[in-house]
Amino acid sequence: MKPAIIFAAAALFATDLPLAAQNIENTQSYEWLMRQPVPVTTGDITDRPYRVIGHITKGVHKATIFHADPSHDKVMRELWEKARKMKADSVIYAQFGEARNRGFVKGGRDARGTAIQFLRGEELRAWQEQHSPTPQ
Known about the structure:
4 strands; 26% strand; alpha+beta; Translation Initiation Factor IF3
């Protein structure tokens, strides 16, 4: 009985490791993101506080059946355009699926992400005061 429990625990632990490591590798810095022509990332921004404006979903399609499927860059640009209309500074957790054929829509991709605004001015100072270590 004990070997079965140990084996099950080891298998569970081994399958969770890649998920934990994935979150660490997928973070970007604020400076890196702001240097990008399209400030969209598949991960999170951990070095600057932000406010979530909303969640974005967008269907990206090719113009005709003769055009190529939407590329990764096109999908990211479309997400950014929708976020910019919401007055966002960036899009985090961007995801999109493979090109699919559904009914009369050929080669479309569903994309989603989270539109954010970075805290500035008085709001940023209040956040820093709240999260600064207290002297003991």
